Amino acid sequence: MGIKQDVKLEMSALHYENLMTLSVRINDEKVEVKVPPTLSLAVILRNYFQLTGTKIACGIGRCGACSILLDDELVNACLVMAYQANGKSITTIEGLSKLSLDEVQEAFLKQGGYQCGYCTPGMIMAVKAMFDRNPHPQESDIEEALAGNLCRCTGYGGILRAVKYVMNQKHY
Fold it and tell me: Contact, 121 vs 53, CB < 8 A?
């Protein structure tokens, strides 16, 4: 399958005076692209690589819709500039699982952990990062993990059910 680059967008970046070659691993695939060094990863992922699961909402790191893993650490992609990501590994919602849904994705689906779906990729990335760090989270760990993600639709009931569903599956 592979990651597809949008050459038109890459060429449109040429009007910038200083471009850098961003060399990263996205979802286990090494890629390089010329970009302005201060362009955010959220814009790069969506517009240069068509990885639209990374949402852009607030643009200031408050909502978590753009959450990704950068070298296995949860970050807001809207706050990470190209030059800060150079040489690093990025995992997006599209890269959590290759052949089927990741168990966190499946739990969100089965337990109704979404409504409009806009915040869902960021929520899933936050929950996945939490379980990767702590296979047996306490209630306070769950609250902390979700503190950087906003959802205005669900009231968080389905999201919490999804987290507890994963915990009960004993995969972590």
Answer: yes
pLDDT exceeds cutoff 70 at 105: yes
Closest CA to 93 of 150, 49, 156, 133: 49
For the purposes of burial, counting CB atoms within 10 Å of the CB of 139, is it exposed (0-12), middle (13-18) or buried (19 or more)?
exposed
For 92, left (φ over 0), alpha (ψ -120 to 50), or beta?
beta
Range of the domain at 110: 103-168
Query: Contact 24/89 with Cβ under 8 angstroms?
Result: yes
Helix (H) or strand (E) segment spanning residue 158: helix 157-168
AA letter at 150 = L
Span 54-67, pLDDT tens digits: 999 999 999 999 99
Longest Cα–Cα distance in the chain: 53
Q: 29 pLDDT exceeds 90?
A: yes
Total of domains in the chain: 2
Q: Say if residue 23 is in the same domain as residue 81.
A: yes
